[in-house]
Amino acid sequence: xxxxxxxxxxxxxxxGEMPNYFLADKAGSTSxxxxxxxxxxxxxxxxxxxxxxxxxxxxGEVENPNLTFIVDSVDFxxxxxxxxxxxxxxxxxxxxxxxxxxxxxxxxxLTRSAPTHDRSETxxxxxxxxxxxxxxxxxxxxxxxxLRASMVNVQMLGxxxxxxxxxIEPIASAPVDELVSRFxxxxxxxLTG
Length: 193
What we know:
This protein has helices at residues 11-17, 24-27, 73-81, 87-101, 106-113, 118-139, 145-165, 176-192, and strands at residues 32-39, 44-51, 54-59, 67-72. By secondary structure, the protein is α+β, with helices and mostly antiparallel strands. It folds into two domains: 1-82, SCP2 sterol-binding domain (Nonspecific Lipid-transfer Protein, Chain A); 84-193, Tetracycline Repressor, domain 2 (Orthogonal Bundle), CATH 1.10.357. The protein has a four-stranded mixed beta sheet with strand order 3-2-1-4. α4 (87-101) packs across α8 (176-192).
């Protein structure tokens, strides 16, 4: 993102850089907004909006976000700048904690409706491609980076479906730390194994 060490980056810098990684050709006609509701040292709300083939970011609220991430500001910076060491656990912890706090937010709604609703399928696929696959693949220095990142998507979607949509036990009621300790290494292996 910048030449500064990750420990010195702030959430404002991370969010401010996000439009620079936006892939207009992948976004197509997508219009969406993502709200980052951060707590802790750098508490506050930041957002990124996608419309008309452009991405913009800023501080404050955004009306009716398509996705809201509720996370500690220090963890937020680590997610985007922490490198590959321990990224599997960071991804799973962030996913589960956010969905648990948001009472099965818009990501679950999109995942649930995607098989029967074309617009939901498009939004979910474009979000995954842009925000997860693209970012993870960029971190890897391997010819199969896109495949490895896509394998992470499979793990994440499987967990979302099992825990929040189908409510399959014991996954549905498992503590966050248990899921992190079991799924984190799987995600890590997909990326670096």
